[in-house]
């Protein structure tokens, strides 16, 4: 199974789609760009880009390194999530709940921008196997699921 940085694996619960076999967004058609997977790209960017952590975050090791993207200062829709702040934490119930909240906040921005009518996000942890699975879903205006993928992270605890 392919991985996407920092220990995350992508898998589709139905088709077991390999994200690295999905056509990239920069394909061309008739001499112009042909975006095929815009929603998938937007979800990945929102979940896995490092959002700027609040100065009082209990999960950052160095308050001087809050990360984030400078462009967020000029945008009404910040990019990324705070999942990165959890990677060095033990896989506790609190960390699982924070992961759920951080992922929902990140995906909600796609709803706020009009890319979907509503969203749901499940986060399930398997503590004995040290894994966390995030399943974001986006729904169209007619109520149908327009996006559903699972992302699994192997939690390495030191």
From TrEMBL:
Source organism's superkingdom? Answer: Bacteria
- What Pfam families has UniProt attached to this entry? GP46
Query: What name does UniProt use for this protein?
Result: Phage protein GP46
Q: Which organism is it from?
A: Paraburkholderia tuberum
């Amino acid at each position: 199974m392919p991985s996407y940085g920092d220990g995350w694996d992508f898998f589709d619960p139905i088709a077991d789609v390999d994200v690295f076999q999905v056509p990239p967004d920069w394909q061309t058609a008739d001499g112009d760009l042909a975006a095929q997977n815009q929603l998938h790209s937007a979800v990945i960017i929102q979940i896995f880009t490092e959002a700027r952590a609040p100065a009082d975050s209990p999960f950052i090791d160095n308050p001087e390194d809050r990360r984030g993207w400078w462009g967020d200062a000029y945008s009404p829709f910040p990019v990324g999530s705070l999942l990165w702040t959890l990677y060095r934490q033990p896989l506790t119930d609190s960390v699982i709940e924070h992961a759920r909240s951080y992922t929902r906040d990140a995906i909600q921005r796609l709803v706020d921008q009009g890319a979907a009518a509503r969203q749901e996000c499940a986060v399930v942890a398997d503590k004995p196997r040290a894994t966390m699975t995030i399943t974001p879903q986006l729904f169209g205006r007619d109520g149908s699921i327009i996006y559903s993928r699972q992302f699994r992270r192997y939690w390495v605890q030191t």
